[in-house]
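Table S2 (continued). Query chain:
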Amino acid sequence: MAQNRVKQLWLTCACLLLVLLATLPLHAQPGEGSDVPAIATTSQDGFNLVVSEMITPSYACLQVSPPTHGWFAGSFTHLPVKTPVTLGLSMGEMRDGELDADVTRWLGLQPVMTYADPTQYAAYEWFRKDPQGRWISGDPFKVGEARYAGMELVPKQTVIPEEVASQFLSSDGAIWTPWREIDNVEVLPNVNIFRIRETYALPSATVAMRVPYTYTYLQDFLSRLQAAKLPGVTVDELGKTPGGRALQVIRVTDPTDPQANRQSILVIAREHATEPAGSWVAHGMLQTLLSEEGNARCVPIAPGSSSPSRTRMAAPSRCMID
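Corresponding output:
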């Protein structure tokens, strides 16, 4: 008899527990009655990701605002560390003008991340090893000995903590950049969702689809360019955007070449605001032209050909930087 009463008591407790669990919210909301702060985003120049909902303490639903599906970036705080974190971008209700957002456009693409502060100029500085094993900065404004960053496994730098700096080393150990790709991504076409899974070593990180090229970084770069007073290099302002941002052009000329003999090449970058890759291409071209070791030259491309022609041409139709 006593055993039956004990069993009945256990069954009653179990039923009460199930009723209690049924009344709990399906979505855990860290920060609400909890000591664990929820994953959040911090406002940055041109970044467009915000946390819209927390599914679990390690699963955040994100909204891209203003609506655009060509590019995204967000700086996150309170990320759980040393445990997998999922960031889910729902594209279902997004439109870019008359165009519906389609997550399949990101098939095969890999976002990037960094622990560096994206507002710092040095967060976009990369390094390469020379034949002597020395790390050399890609910053065109570092000259002489200032270009060298040691001979250790990773270069001497200030934006990525030393304990995680090796994560940003190339597979061959010859290139270091403060941004690296995130391998674990998932595209769900049926529900128009893009998922990013990563285990973070630090609670603050920036995630983006391609490395950002912000207006703040551009102005910092141009200020350094003007301060360097390089011969033949000028920065002109052509006007303002509707948002009040400067429209600038960088002129690079050979001051020893008579103006009458000069040919002009116009490079336009970033025609679309959500395409930072164009800015980086133009930036890289400019860095090559300004480099101490630069061997840039105009290589003629024969009409109708997609590859450089090494033969001299009287009137080349196109040129590329070699």
